[in-house]
Protein backbone atom coordinates (compact mmCIF):
# COMPACT_ATOMS: atom_id res chain seq x y z
CA UNK A 1 0.00 0.00 0.00
CA UNK A 2 1.43 3.33 -0.95
CA UNK A 3 -0.30 6.63 -1.39
CA UNK A 4 2.39 7.83 -3.80
CA UNK A 5 2.01 4.74 -5.98
CA UNK A 6 -1.76 5.00 -5.94
CA UNK A 7 -1.50 8.54 -7.23
CA UNK A 8 1.16 7.81 -9.85
CA UNK A 9 -0.63 4.69 -11.12
CA UNK A 10 -4.11 6.22 -10.66
CA UNK A 11 -5.07 3.07 -8.78
CA UNK A 12 -7.32 3.58 -5.77
CA UNK A 13 -6.89 -0.07 -4.79
CA UNK A 14 -3.35 0.78 -3.69
CA UNK A 15 -4.53 3.34 -1.14
CA UNK A 16 -4.20 2.27 2.49
CA UNK A 17 -7.45 1.77 4.38
CA UNK A 18 -8.95 0.50 7.58
CA UNK A 19 -7.77 -3.04 6.96
CA UNK A 20 -4.22 -1.79 7.36
CA UNK A 21 -3.59 -1.69 11.11
CA UNK A 22 -1.46 1.42 10.76
CA UNK A 23 -4.20 3.27 8.82
CA UNK A 24 -7.36 2.05 10.48
CA UNK A 25 -8.22 5.49 11.87
CA UNK A 26 -7.30 7.28 8.65
CA UNK A 27 -9.07 5.29 5.98
CA UNK A 28 -8.21 6.58 2.51
CA UNK A 29 -9.37 3.52 0.59
CA UNK A 30 -12.93 3.93 1.87
CA UNK A 31 -12.92 7.67 1.22
CA UNK A 32 -11.50 7.79 -2.30
CA UNK A 33 -13.26 5.58 -4.84
CA UNK A 34 -11.24 6.86 -7.73
CA UNK A 35 -7.91 8.64 -7.78
CA UNK A 36 -8.48 12.06 -9.40
CA UNK A 37 -6.59 12.88 -12.60
CA UNK A 38 -3.19 14.57 -12.23
CA UNK A 39 -3.35 18.13 -10.94
CA UNK A 40 -2.98 20.98 -13.40
CA UNK A 41 0.38 22.61 -13.71
CA UNK A 42 0.42 25.96 -11.91
CA UNK A 43 3.04 28.67 -12.17
CA UNK A 44 4.61 29.08 -8.69
CA UNK A 45 4.71 32.83 -9.35
CA UNK A 46 0.92 33.07 -9.01
CA UNK A 47 0.38 31.33 -5.68
CA UNK A 48 1.21 34.27 -3.42
CA UNK A 49 3.38 34.33 -0.31
CA UNK A 50 3.89 31.54 2.23
CA UNK A 51 3.80 31.88 6.02
CA UNK A 52 7.58 31.85 6.51
CA UNK A 53 8.64 33.82 3.40
CA UNK A 54 9.83 36.81 5.41
CA UNK A 55 12.41 34.74 7.29
CA UNK A 56 14.73 33.79 4.42
CA UNK A 57 15.47 34.37 0.75
CA UNK A 58 16.11 30.73 0.10
CA UNK A 59 12.74 29.28 -0.87
CA UNK A 60 11.62 26.11 -2.55
CA UNK A 61 8.03 26.14 -3.77
CA UNK A 62 6.35 22.98 -4.99
CA UNK A 63 2.97 23.61 -6.56
CA UNK A 64 0.77 20.59 -7.24
CA UNK A 65 3.60 18.23 -6.47
CA UNK A 66 5.47 18.31 -9.73
CA UNK A 67 8.92 16.80 -9.77
CA UNK A 68 11.58 15.96 -7.24
CA UNK A 69 13.49 18.51 -5.20
CA UNK A 70 16.77 18.35 -3.35
CA UNK A 71 17.91 20.61 -0.53
CA UNK A 72 21.52 20.24 0.52
CA UNK A 73 23.61 21.71 3.31
CA UNK A 74 27.37 21.32 3.04
CA UNK A 75 29.66 20.38 5.93
CA UNK A 76 29.76 23.19 8.48
CA UNK A 77 27.28 25.33 6.55
CA UNK A 78 24.22 26.90 8.25
CA UNK A 79 21.06 27.70 6.33
CA UNK A 80 17.44 28.68 6.74
CA UNK A 81 15.27 27.32 3.92
CA UNK A 82 11.57 27.67 3.23
CA UNK A 83 9.84 24.65 1.69
CA UNK A 84 6.27 25.15 0.51
CA UNK A 85 3.89 22.43 -0.67
CA UNK A 86 1.03 24.18 -2.42
CA UNK A 87 -2.11 22.37 -3.58
CA UNK A 88 -4.50 23.99 -6.04
CA UNK A 89 -7.67 22.58 -7.55
CA UNK A 90 -9.13 19.07 -7.68
CA UNK A 91 -6.37 16.86 -9.02
CA UNK A 92 -3.94 14.39 -7.51
CA UNK A 93 -0.22 14.95 -7.13
CA UNK A 94 2.78 13.44 -5.40
CA UNK A 95 6.15 15.06 -4.81
CA UNK A 96 9.50 13.86 -3.61
CA UNK A 97 11.87 15.92 -1.50
CA UNK A 98 15.30 14.90 -0.31
CA UNK A 99 17.12 16.90 2.32
CA UNK A 100 20.71 16.22 3.17
CA UNK A 101 22.60 17.97 5.93
CA UNK A 102 26.24 16.94 5.85
CA UNK A 103 28.49 16.58 8.89
CA UNK A 104 28.36 19.57 11.19
CA UNK A 105 25.90 21.41 8.95
CA UNK A 106 22.89 23.23 10.34
CA UNK A 107 19.54 23.62 8.66
CA UNK A 108 16.36 25.31 9.75
CA UNK A 109 13.64 24.07 7.42
CA UNK A 110 10.45 26.10 7.51
CA UNK A 111 7.91 23.96 5.77
CA UNK A 112 4.30 24.67 4.92
CA UNK A 113 1.38 22.85 3.36
CA UNK A 114 -1.06 25.27 1.78
CA UNK A 115 -4.30 24.20 0.18
CA UNK A 116 -7.20 25.96 -1.50
CA UNK A 117 -10.88 24.98 -1.48
CA UNK A 118 -10.32 22.20 -4.05
CA UNK A 119 -10.84 18.50 -3.52
CA UNK A 120 -7.21 17.60 -4.13
CA UNK A 121 -5.33 14.46 -3.17
CA UNK A 122 -1.74 15.33 -2.30
CA UNK A 123 1.19 13.28 -1.18
CA UNK A 124 4.68 14.39 -0.26
CA UNK A 125 7.47 11.94 0.42
CA UNK A 126 10.46 13.43 2.21
CA UNK A 127 13.79 11.86 2.97
CA UNK A 128 16.01 13.54 5.54
CA UNK A 129 19.55 12.45 6.10
CA UNK A 130 21.78 14.01 8.71
CA UNK A 131 25.54 13.49 8.88
CA UNK A 132 27.58 13.31 12.05
CA UNK A 133 26.86 16.21 14.39
CA UNK A 134 24.51 17.81 11.87
CA UNK A 135 21.41 19.59 13.16
CA UNK A 136 18.09 20.12 11.53
CA UNK A 137 15.07 21.91 12.95
CA UNK A 138 11.93 21.33 10.92
CA UNK A 139 8.96 23.58 11.61
CA UNK A 140 5.84 22.59 9.68
CA UNK A 141 2.65 24.62 9.37
CA UNK A 142 -0.16 22.69 7.74
CA UNK A 143 -3.05 24.78 6.42
CA UNK A 144 -5.05 22.57 4.13
CA UNK A 145 -8.47 23.32 2.70
CA UNK A 146 -11.51 21.60 4.19
CA UNK A 147 -11.99 19.43 1.07
CA UNK A 148 -8.37 18.46 0.58
CA UNK A 149 -6.70 15.16 1.36
CA UNK A 150 -3.01 15.39 2.22
CA UNK A 151 -0.50 12.77 3.21
CA UNK A 152 3.02 13.79 4.19
CA UNK A 153 5.49 10.98 4.81
CA UNK A 154 8.96 11.68 6.07
CA UNK A 155 11.83 9.33 6.70
CA UNK A 156 14.70 10.48 8.84
CA UNK A 157 18.14 8.92 8.96
CA UNK A 158 20.30 10.20 11.78
CA UNK A 159 24.03 9.81 12.28
CA UNK A 160 25.62 9.70 15.74
CA UNK A 161 25.80 13.11 17.34
CA UNK A 162 23.15 14.56 15.02
CA UNK A 163 20.06 16.39 16.25
CA UNK A 164 16.70 16.44 14.52
CA UNK A 165 13.89 18.52 15.99
CA UNK A 166 10.46 18.76 14.47
CA UNK A 167 7.29 20.67 15.29
CA UNK A 168 4.18 20.12 13.20
CA UNK A 169 1.19 22.40 13.65
CA UNK A 170 -1.91 21.47 11.71
CA UNK A 171 -5.53 22.50 11.35
CA UNK A 172 -6.43 19.25 9.60
CA UNK A 173 -8.14 18.62 6.28
CA UNK A 174 -10.93 16.43 4.91
CA UNK A 175 -8.49 13.69 5.70
CA UNK A 176 -4.86 14.24 6.53
CA UNK A 177 -1.88 12.32 7.77
CA UNK A 178 1.50 13.73 8.76
CA UNK A 179 3.85 10.85 9.29
CA UNK A 180 7.50 10.58 10.29
CA UNK A 181 9.70 7.52 10.65
CA UNK A 182 13.08 7.87 12.28
CA UNK A 183 16.02 5.48 12.26
CA UNK A 184 17.79 6.45 15.46
CA UNK A 185 21.39 5.22 15.75
CA UNK A 186 21.85 6.29 19.38
CA UNK A 187 25.40 7.62 19.78
CA UNK A 188 24.17 10.75 21.55
CA UNK A 189 21.97 11.72 18.64
CA UNK A 190 18.98 13.76 19.78
CA UNK A 191 15.45 13.70 18.51
CA UNK A 192 12.48 15.90 19.27
CA UNK A 193 9.15 15.15 17.57
CA UNK A 194 6.45 17.61 18.57
CA UNK A 195 3.00 18.22 17.23
CA UNK A 196 0.00 20.49 17.60
CA UNK A 197 -3.43 20.03 16.12
CA UNK A 198 -6.33 22.44 16.27
CA UNK A 199 -9.34 20.98 14.51
CA UNK A 200 -12.87 22.16 13.94
CA UNK A 201 -15.76 21.41 11.59
CA UNK A 202 -15.40 17.92 10.16
CA UNK A 203 -11.66 18.09 9.85
CA UNK A 204 -9.35 15.16 10.43
CA UNK A 205 -5.67 15.11 11.29
CA UNK A 206 -3.45 12.13 11.97
CA UNK A 207 -0.01 12.51 13.53
CA UNK A 208 1.84 9.24 13.21
CA UNK A 209 5.44 8.61 14.18
CA UNK A 210 7.70 5.61 14.48
CA UNK A 211 11.12 5.90 16.08
CA UNK A 212 13.48 2.95 16.12
CA UNK A 213 16.39 3.18 18.51
CA UNK A 214 19.08 0.84 17.22
CA UNK A 215 22.14 1.88 19.24
CA UNK A 216 23.17 2.88 22.75
CA UNK A 217 22.90 6.40 24.16
CA UNK A 218 20.05 7.80 22.12
CA UNK A 219 17.41 10.28 23.24
CA UNK A 220 13.89 10.92 21.99
CA UNK A 221 11.58 13.56 23.37
CA UNK A 222 8.08 13.78 21.98
CA UNK A 223 5.23 16.09 22.97
CA UNK A 224 1.98 16.40 21.07
CA UNK A 225 -1.02 18.45 22.12
CA UNK A 226 -4.26 19.20 20.42
CA UNK A 227 -7.69 20.69 20.60
CA UNK A 228 -10.73 19.28 18.79
CA UNK A 229 -14.11 20.94 18.38
CA UNK A 230 -17.35 20.33 16.49
CA UNK A 231 -17.19 16.95 14.75
CA UNK A 232 -13.47 16.96 14.20
CA UNK A 233 -11.31 13.90 14.68
CA UNK A 234 -7.68 13.67 15.69
CA UNK A 235 -5.47 10.62 15.54
CA UNK A 236 -2.18 10.27 17.38
CA UNK A 237 -0.10 7.18 16.83
CA UNK A 238 3.32 7.32 18.40
CA UNK A 239 5.54 4.30 18.48
CA UNK A 240 9.01 4.15 19.97
CA UNK A 241 10.94 0.92 19.54
CA UNK A 242 14.09 0.34 21.56
CA UNK A 243 15.96 -2.53 19.95
CA UNK A 244 17.87 -5.15 21.85
CA UNK A 245 21.19 -3.72 22.96
CA UNK A 246 20.13 -0.08 22.57
CA UNK A 247 20.93 0.53 26.21
CA UNK A 248 20.90 3.88 27.94
CA UNK A 249 18.13 5.06 25.62
CA UNK A 250 16.14 7.94 27.07
CA UNK A 251 12.71 8.15 25.46
CA UNK A 252 9.81 10.29 26.52
CA UNK A 253 6.44 10.60 24.85
CA UNK A 254 3.49 12.76 25.83
CA UNK A 255 0.18 13.26 24.08
CA UNK A 256 -2.52 15.43 25.60
CA UNK A 257 -5.78 16.47 24.00
CA UNK A 258 -8.67 18.72 24.84
CA UNK A 259 -12.07 17.74 23.50
CA UNK A 260 -14.30 20.80 23.38
CA UNK A 261 -17.48 19.24 22.02
CA UNK A 262 -19.44 16.02 22.50
CA UNK A 263 -19.16 15.01 18.87
CA UNK A 264 -15.42 15.52 18.47
CA UNK A 265 -13.13 12.53 18.74
CA UNK A 266 -9.52 11.76 19.58
CA UNK A 267 -7.97 8.36 18.94
CA UNK A 268 -4.59 7.85 20.52
CA UNK A 269 -2.21 4.95 20.42
CA UNK A 270 1.05 5.58 22.23
CA UNK A 271 3.33 2.56 22.10
CA UNK A 272 6.67 1.84 23.66
CA UNK A 273 8.27 -1.40 22.56
CA UNK A 274 11.36 -2.04 24.59
CA UNK A 275 13.74 -4.90 23.96
CA UNK A 276 16.74 -3.46 25.80
CA UNK A 277 17.38 -3.76 29.54
CA UNK A 278 18.85 -0.47 30.63
CA UNK A 279 16.54 2.28 29.41
CA UNK A 280 14.63 5.26 30.75
CA UNK A 281 11.27 5.45 29.01
CA UNK A 282 8.10 7.23 29.95
CA UNK A 283 4.86 8.05 28.28
CA UNK A 284 1.75 9.93 29.23
CA UNK A 285 -1.52 10.25 27.40
CA UNK A 286 -4.51 12.29 28.49
CA UNK A 287 -7.73 13.28 26.80
CA UNK A 288 -10.09 15.58 28.63
CA UNK A 289 -11.97 18.83 28.82
CA UNK A 290 -10.84 22.25 29.93
CA UNK A 291 -10.42 22.51 33.72
CA UNK A 292 -13.74 24.00 34.90
CA UNK A 293 -12.21 25.13 38.21
CA UNK A 294 -9.47 27.07 36.45
CA UNK A 295 -12.10 28.52 34.15
CA UNK A 296 -14.17 29.75 37.10
CA UNK A 297 -11.05 31.16 38.75
CA UNK A 298 -10.24 33.25 35.64
CA UNK A 299 -13.85 34.39 35.35
CA UNK A 300 -13.94 35.37 39.03
CA UNK A 301 -11.03 37.67 38.27
CA UNK A 302 -13.05 39.35 35.55
CA UNK A 303 -12.16 37.48 32.36
CA UNK A 304 -15.26 36.73 30.23
CA UNK A 305 -15.83 33.05 29.48
CA UNK A 306 -14.81 32.92 25.79
CA UNK A 307 -11.63 34.85 26.58
CA UNK A 308 -10.92 32.65 29.60
CA UNK A 309 -11.33 29.53 27.47
CA UNK A 310 -9.02 30.94 24.79
CA UNK A 311 -6.43 31.94 27.41
CA UNK A 312 -6.35 28.48 29.00
CA UNK A 313 -6.39 26.66 25.66
CA UNK A 314 -3.60 28.80 24.24
CA UNK A 315 -1.54 28.14 27.35
CA UNK A 316 -2.18 24.41 26.94
CA UNK A 317 -0.91 24.45 23.35
CA UNK A 318 1.79 27.00 24.21
CA UNK A 319 3.87 24.38 25.98
CA UNK A 320 4.57 22.75 22.62
CA UNK A 321 5.10 26.01 20.74
CA UNK A 322 7.62 27.17 23.36
CA UNK A 323 9.88 24.27 22.42
CA UNK A 324 10.52 25.60 18.90
CA UNK A 325 14.12 26.76 18.84
CA UNK A 326 14.01 29.23 15.92
CA UNK A 327 12.50 32.29 17.53
CA UNK A 328 10.92 34.08 14.55
CA UNK A 329 9.36 30.80 13.39
CA UNK A 330 8.15 30.15 16.92
CA UNK A 331 6.33 33.50 16.96
CA UNK A 332 4.75 32.79 13.55
CA UNK A 333 3.47 29.45 14.85
CA UNK A 334 2.25 31.11 18.05
CA UNK A 335 0.27 33.66 16.04
CA UNK A 336 -1.11 30.87 13.83
CA UNK A 337 -2.29 28.98 16.94
CA UNK A 338 -3.75 32.10 18.51
CA UNK A 339 -5.70 32.92 15.36
CA UNK A 340 -7.19 29.43 15.18
CA UNK A 341 -8.17 29.36 18.85
CA UNK A 342 -9.65 32.85 18.86
CA UNK A 343 -12.29 31.97 16.24
CA UNK B 1 -22.96 47.69 50.20
CA UNK B 2 -23.72 43.92 50.35
CA UNK B 3 -27.20 42.83 51.30
CA UNK B 4 -28.18 39.18 51.46
CA UNK B 5 -31.78 38.24 52.27
CA UNK B 6 -33.22 34.80 53.04
CA UNK B 7 -30.76 33.17 50.68
CA UNK B 8 -31.30 29.51 49.97
CA UNK B 9 -28.88 27.54 47.81
CA UNK B 10 -28.25 23.92 47.01
CA UNK B 11 -25.64 21.69 45.43
CA UNK B 12 -26.85 18.59 43.60
CA UNK B 13 -30.26 19.03 45.18
CA UNK B 14 -28.90 19.23 48.71
CA UNK B 15 -29.74 22.47 50.46
CA UNK B 16 -26.66 24.07 52.05
CA UNK B 17 -27.76 27.66 52.67
CA UNK B 18 -31.12 27.68 54.43
CA UNK B 19 -32.34 31.25 54.58
CA UNK B 20 -29.18 33.24 55.17
CA UNK B 21 -29.46 36.99 55.77
CA UNK B 22 -26.54 39.37 56.09
CA UNK B 23 -25.81 43.08 55.65
CA UNK B 24 -22.29 44.40 55.25
CA UNK B 25 -22.31 48.21 54.97
CA UNK B 26 -19.57 50.14 53.14
CA UNK B 27 -16.50 50.77 55.27
CA UNK B 28 -17.00 47.69 57.44
CA UNK B 29 -15.26 44.37 57.83
CA UNK B 30 -17.46 41.45 58.83
CA UNK B 31 -16.23 38.02 59.85
CA UNK B 32 -18.13 34.82 59.26
CA UNK B 33 -17.17 32.01 61.56
CA UNK B 34 -18.59 28.57 61.81
CA UNK B 35 -17.88 24.88 62.05
CA UNK B 36 -16.89 22.77 59.06
CA UNK B 37 -19.82 22.08 56.78
CA UNK B 38 -21.80 25.14 57.94
CA UNK B 39 -21.87 26.54 54.39
CA UNK B 40 -19.04 29.11 54.61
CA UNK B 41 -17.42 28.27 51.27
CA UNK B 42 -20.83 27.78 49.66
CA UNK B 43 -21.70 31.35 50.59
CA UNK B 44 -18.54 32.64 48.90
CA UNK B 45 -19.23 30.60 45.73
CA UNK B 46 -22.88 31.62 45.57
CA UNK B 47 -21.92 35.29 45.86
CA UNK B 48 -19.37 34.90 43.04
CA UNK B 49 -21.54 32.77 40.76
CA UNK B 50 -19.81 29.43 40.61
CA UNK B 51 -21.53 26.80 38.46
CA UNK B 52 -23.31 24.02 40.32
CA UNK B 53 -24.47 26.24 43.20
CA UNK B 54 -28.15 26.79 42.59
CA UNK B 55 -29.96 29.60 44.33
CA UNK B 56 -33.54 28.55 45.02
CA UNK B 57 -34.77 31.57 46.98
CA UNK B 58 -33.74 34.93 48.40
CA UNK B 59 -31.55 37.71 47.07
CA UNK B 60 -28.03 39.10 47.13
CA UNK B 61 -27.39 42.67 46.04
CA UNK B 62 -24.37 44.95 45.91
CA UNK B 63 -25.36 48.61 46.31
CA UNK B 64 -28.88 47.59 45.34
CA UNK B 65 -27.84 45.78 42.19
CA UNK B 66 -28.86 42.12 41.86
CA UNK B 67 -25.67 40.04 41.87
CA UNK B 68 -27.34 36.71 41.24
CA UNK B 69 -28.33 37.47 37.63
CA UNK B 70 -24.77 38.42 36.65
CA UNK B 71 -22.05 36.21 35.15
CA UNK B 72 -19.01 35.61 37.43
CA UNK B 73 -16.88 37.99 35.34
CA UNK B 74 -19.60 40.66 35.43
CA UNK B 75 -19.69 40.44 39.23
CA UNK B 76 -15.89 40.81 39.24
CA UNK B 77 -16.15 43.93 37.09
CA UNK B 78 -18.67 45.32 39.61
CA UNK B 79 -15.94 44.92 42.22
CA UNK B 80 -16.58 41.53 43.81
CA UNK B 81 -13.34 39.67 44.57
CA UNK B 82 -12.96 36.25 46.13
CA UNK B 83 -9.65 35.22 47.63
CA UNK B 84 -9.84 31.44 47.17
CA UNK B 85 -9.24 28.99 49.97
CA UNK B 86 -7.38 26.86 47.42
CA UNK B 87 -6.11 29.14 44.61
CA UNK B 88 -6.00 27.38 41.24
CA UNK B 89 -2.86 26.66 39.27
CA UNK B 90 -2.91 28.07 35.75
CA UNK B 91 -0.25 26.22 33.74
CA UNK B 92 1.31 28.12 30.86
CA UNK B 93 -0.03 31.54 31.84
CA UNK B 94 2.51 33.81 33.56
CA UNK B 95 1.07 35.55 36.63
CA UNK B 96 1.67 38.96 35.04
CA UNK B 97 -0.21 37.97 31.87
CA UNK B 98 -3.10 36.58 33.90
CA UNK B 99 -3.47 39.66 36.10
CA UNK B 100 -3.15 42.05 33.18
CA UNK B 101 -5.78 40.12 31.20
CA UNK B 102 -8.12 40.26 34.22
CA UNK B 103 -7.49 43.93 34.91
CA UNK B 104 -8.08 44.96 31.31
CA UNK B 105 -11.18 42.78 31.00
CA UNK B 106 -12.64 44.47 34.09
CA UNK B 107 -11.73 47.91 32.77
CA UNK B 108 -13.30 47.13 29.42
CA UNK B 109 -16.49 45.95 31.11
CA UNK B 110 -16.65 49.25 33.01
CA UNK B 111 -15.98 51.30 29.87
CA UNK B 112 -12.53 52.38 31.08
CA UNK B 113 -9.40 52.49 28.89
CA UNK B 114 -6.90 49.61 29.08
CA UNK B 115 -3.89 50.02 31.35
CA UNK B 116 -0.67 50.60 29.40
CA UNK B 117 2.21 48.14 29.71
CA UNK B 118 4.54 50.55 31.59
CA UNK B 119 1.76 51.61 33.99
CA UNK B 120 0.90 47.98 34.63
CA UNK B 121 4.49 46.94 35.32
CA UNK B 122 5.01 49.88 37.65
CA UNK B 123 1.90 48.93 39.60
CA UNK B 124 2.90 45.26 39.72
CA UNK B 125 6.40 46.07 40.98
CA UNK B 126 5.09 48.34 43.71
CA UNK B 127 2.45 45.89 44.95
CA UNK B 128 4.82 42.92 44.79
CA UNK B 129 7.35 44.82 46.90
CA UNK B 130 4.68 45.66 49.49
CA UNK B 131 3.74 42.00 49.75
CA UNK B 132 7.37 40.86 49.72
CA UNK B 133 6.85 38.84 46.54
CA UNK B 134 9.90 38.38 44.32
CA UNK B 135 9.02 40.10 41.04
CA UNK B 136 10.53 37.24 39.02
CA UNK B 137 7.88 34.98 40.49
CA UNK B 138 5.29 36.96 38.54
CA UNK B 139 6.91 35.83 35.31
CA UNK B 140 6.23 32.21 36.18
CA UNK B 141 3.00 30.36 35.44
CA UNK B 142 0.44 31.48 38.02
CA UNK B 143 0.55 29.39 41.20
CA UNK B 144 2.25 26.45 39.44
CA UNK B 145 4.69 24.97 41.93
CA UNK B 146 4.01 27.75 44.45
CA UNK B 147 3.79 26.90 48.15
CA UNK B 148 0.49 27.34 50.00
CA UNK B 149 1.73 30.61 51.49
CA UNK B 150 2.93 31.90 48.13
CA UNK B 151 -0.44 31.17 46.57
CA UNK B 152 -2.21 33.15 49.29
CA UNK B 153 0.14 36.07 48.80
CA UNK B 154 -0.57 35.92 45.06
CA UNK B 155 -4.28 36.19 45.88
CA UNK B 156 -3.66 39.32 47.90
CA UNK B 157 -1.44 40.72 45.15
CA UNK B 158 -4.24 40.23 42.64
CA UNK B 159 -6.64 41.82 45.08
CA UNK B 160 -4.37 44.83 45.49
CA UNK B 161 -3.97 45.24 41.73
CA UNK B 162 -7.61 44.74 40.80
CA UNK B 163 -8.71 47.06 43.60
CA UNK B 164 -12.16 45.53 44.20
CA UNK B 165 -14.96 47.16 46.24
CA UNK B 166 -16.25 44.06 47.97
CA UNK B 167 -13.71 41.51 49.17
CA UNK B 168 -14.41 37.96 50.26
CA UNK B 169 -11.53 36.22 52.02
CA UNK B 170 -12.18 32.47 52.22
CA UNK B 171 -9.95 30.85 54.85
CA UNK B 172 -7.09 33.11 53.82
CA UNK B 173 -5.08 32.18 56.90
CA UNK B 174 -4.92 28.47 56.13
CA UNK B 175 -1.43 27.40 55.13
CA UNK B 176 0.22 30.59 56.39
CA UNK B 177 2.91 30.83 59.02
CA UNK B 178 2.92 33.82 61.37
CA UNK B 179 5.23 35.98 59.24
CA UNK B 180 3.26 35.32 56.07
CA UNK B 181 0.01 35.91 57.96
CA UNK B 182 1.23 39.34 59.04
CA UNK B 183 2.24 40.26 55.47
CA UNK B 184 -1.10 39.11 54.11
CA UNK B 185 -3.04 40.91 56.85
CA UNK B 186 -1.10 44.13 56.19
CA UNK B 187 -2.01 43.79 52.51
CA UNK B 188 -5.68 43.32 53.35
CA UNK B 189 -5.74 46.12 55.91
CA UNK B 190 -4.22 48.49 53.37
CA UNK B 191 -7.37 47.98 51.31
CA UNK B 192 -9.72 48.98 54.11
CA UNK B 193 -11.54 52.20 53.38
CA UNK B 194 -14.87 53.98 53.54
CA UNK B 195 -15.85 52.81 50.03
CA UNK B 196 -14.97 49.16 50.53
CA UNK B 197 -16.37 46.32 52.55
CA UNK B 198 -15.01 42.88 53.38
CA UNK B 199 -16.31 39.50 54.36
CA UNK B 200 -13.68 37.44 56.17
CA UNK B 201 -14.56 33.76 56.29
CA UNK B 202 -12.57 31.81 58.82
CA UNK B 203 -12.72 28.78 61.02
CA UNK B 204 -10.25 30.12 63.58
CA UNK B 205 -10.07 33.37 65.50
CA UNK B 206 -6.33 33.78 64.81
CA UNK B 207 -6.75 35.73 61.55
CA UNK B 208 -9.04 38.23 63.32
CA UNK B 209 -6.15 39.31 65.59
CA UNK B 210 -4.61 40.74 62.44
CA UNK B 211 -7.67 41.76 60.44
CA UNK B 212 -9.96 43.27 63.08
CA UNK B 213 -13.63 42.88 62.19
CA UNK B 214 -16.39 45.36 63.00
CA UNK B 215 -18.93 42.55 63.28
CA UNK B 216 -18.74 38.79 63.77
CA UNK B 217 -21.44 36.37 62.57
CA UNK B 218 -21.80 32.73 63.41
CA UNK B 219 -22.83 30.55 60.48
CA UNK B 220 -24.25 27.19 61.42
CA UNK B 221 -26.22 24.74 59.28
CA UNK B 222 -26.75 27.29 56.50
CA UNK B 223 -27.98 30.20 58.61
CA UNK B 224 -26.56 33.10 60.60
CA UNK B 225 -27.41 32.06 64.14
CA UNK B 226 -25.66 34.81 66.12
CA UNK B 227 -24.05 38.18 65.48
CA UNK B 228 -22.01 40.45 67.68
CA UNK B 229 -18.88 42.54 68.05
CA UNK B 230 -15.26 41.28 67.92
CA UNK B 231 -15.71 39.78 71.40
CA UNK B 232 -17.93 37.07 69.86
CA UNK B 233 -14.88 35.67 68.03
CA UNK B 234 -13.03 35.36 71.34
CA UNK B 235 -15.98 33.63 72.92
CA UNK B 236 -16.11 31.12 70.04
CA UNK B 237 -12.40 30.48 70.37
CA UNK B 238 -12.90 29.77 74.07
CA UNK B 239 -16.17 27.82 74.06
CA UNK B 240 -16.27 26.33 70.57
CA UNK B 241 -19.25 26.06 68.22
CA UNK B 242 -21.20 23.45 70.19
CA UNK B 243 -23.74 25.86 71.59
CA UNK B 244 -24.56 27.17 68.10
CA UNK B 245 -24.57 23.79 66.45
CA UNK B 246 -27.30 22.83 68.94
CA UNK B 247 -29.16 26.10 68.36
CA UNK B 248 -29.30 25.36 64.67
What report would you give on this structure?
The complex is a heterodimer of chains A (343) and B (248). Chain A has 343 residues and is mainly β. Chain A has one domain (36-290, 324-334). Helices cover 14% and strands 46% of the residues of chain A. Chain A has helices at 3-9, 292-300, 305-321, 327-342, and strands at 59-63, 68-73, 78-87, 92-101, 106-115, 121-130, 135-143, 149-157, 163-170, 175-184, 190-199, 204-213, 219-228, 233-242, 249-259, 265-274, 279-288. The longest helix of chain A is centred in the C-terminal third of the chain and has 17 residues, at 305-321. Chain A starts with a helix and ends with a helix. With 248 residues, chain B is of the alpha/beta class. Chain B has a single domain (2-84, 147-247), classed as Rossmann fold, CATH 3.40.50.300. Helices cover 37% and strands 26% of the residues of chain B. In chain B, strands 6-7-8-3-9-10 form a 6-stranded mixed sheet, with helices on both faces. Chain B has a 4-stranded antiparallel sheet with strand order 2-1-4-5. In chain B, α5 (148-162) runs parallel beside α6 (178-190). The radius of gyration of chain B is 18 Å and the shape is globular. The mean pLDDT of chain B is 92.
